[in-house]
Structure of Large ribosomal subunit protein bL32:
Amino acid sequence: MPVPKRRTSKARRDKRRHSHSLAIPAYVLCPQCHEPKLPHRVCLSCGYYDGKEVLKVEEK
């Protein structure tokens, strides 16, 4: 099995790992009800997407 000839430096190791962090999900405000929602998805509080009602949401 191959073995590295030289030890990998901390800088080289960290350059490789710099993109391993988790990203915070982006939220946008719904234009209808102004609740936070994920972009390009139906708003779960009012049921609208792209200005059209897609889901019937029951009032609690």
User: Anything to note?
Assistant: The chain has a mean pLDDT of 93. The longest helix spans residues 10-17.
